[in-house]
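Title: Comparing notes on inverse folding

I've been comparing how different people in this forum approach sequence design from structure. To keep things fair, I'm posting one structure and asking everyone to reply with a full sequence. Here's the target:
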């Protein structure tokens, strides 16, 4: 069908779980810094299907045998220098599988997605220690509750370590450096991971999706950890069986999260926060947790037309502020 591996750069590495890492080609096409750290990951299947995620700019794409190539999958193939005639051949061959075999394949894919979601255990940095007074002050200034199991490290730079957990097992972490040099964060994150599932209560009927880890900690929400939501994260979020409200960062990158939420049929909330408030954590610092949650619920919207109108209003405001 399609041997996507043959189009990947020669410099690449493969993990035991089947993911292949290489320098992502999408970043420079989306206005981000060129990837030189093999932050692109693709997982091909024997039938030619694949999933792609870039941990540098957040771009995602996937292809399922028996379906049309999506716009995002086409762009990825183009960026990998796949000839246009080959892309069209792939699309045509894929549609031929819309037969009994194709339907059986889709049924098997559905069964697979309903299986238990799991992540491998990961170690935290060896040099971690209890929070210092400076780290506690930083978290308190950001209105972050100190009951989360934060840690602290001093080397190579001082920073707060936030463990990533799933079903109360450590599956990764992020470090927020306190010196505000670039990069401000460094992460060990597994594909498809969503931060904050262990913060949810069993009797809650709604879950709020945000971008950043501190946004999630501010309101007990879920953080997708970038400005897009990949397919594996969608499956995890849907497995919770709750109403979903997506609250994007109020910047241009955050509007990509809005588009994805609309595509998935999820509600979107873009509150009219005071000037200078860009995200949920900013709002909690300025307004408090309860008031922020009230603004989110009051601004909840499911109408595509109203969401698009609000998105245009925000983009116009951002343009005028430049």
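Reply #1:
Here's my take.
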């Amino acid at each position: 069908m399609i041997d996507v591996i043959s189009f990947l750069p020669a410099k690449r590495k493969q993990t035991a779980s089947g993911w292949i890492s290489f320098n992502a080609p999408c970043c420079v096409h989306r206005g981000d810094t060129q990837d030189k750290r093999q932050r692109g990951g693709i997982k091909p299947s024997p039938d030619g299907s694949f999933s792609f995620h870039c941990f540098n700019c957040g771009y995602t794409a996937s292809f399922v045998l028996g379906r049309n190539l999506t716009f995002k999958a086409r762009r990825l193939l183009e960026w990998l220098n796949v000839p246009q005639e080959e892309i069209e051949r792939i699309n045509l061959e894929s549609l031929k599988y819309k037969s009994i075999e194709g339907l059986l394949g889709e049924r098997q894919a559905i069964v697979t997605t309903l299986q238990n979601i799991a992540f491998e255990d990961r170690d935290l940095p060896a040099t971690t220690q209890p929070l210092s007074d400076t780290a506690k002050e930083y978290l308190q200034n950001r209105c972050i509750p100190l009951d989360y199991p934060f840690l602290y490290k001093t080397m190579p730079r001082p920073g707060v370590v936030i463990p990533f957990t799933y079903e109360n097992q450590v599956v990764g972490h992020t470090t927020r450096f306190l010196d505000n040099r670039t990069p401000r964060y460094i992460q060990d994150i597994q594909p498809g991971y969503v931060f904050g599932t262990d913060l949810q209560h069993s009797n809650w009927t709604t879950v709020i999706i945000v971008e950043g880890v501190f946004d999630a900690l501010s309101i007990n929400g879920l953080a997708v950890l970038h400005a897009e939501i990949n397919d594996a994260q969608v499956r995890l979020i849907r497995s919770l069986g709750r109403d979903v409200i997506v609250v994007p960062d109020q910047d241009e990158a955050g509007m990509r999260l809005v588009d994805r939420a609309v595509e998935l049929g999820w509600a979107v909330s873009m509150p009219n926060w005071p000037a200078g408030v860009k995200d949920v954590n900013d709002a909690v610092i300025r307004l408090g947790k309860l008031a922020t949650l009230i603004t989110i619920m009051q601004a909840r919207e499911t109408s595509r037309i109203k969401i698009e109108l609000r998105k245009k209003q925000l983009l116009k405001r951002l343009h005028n502020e430049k």
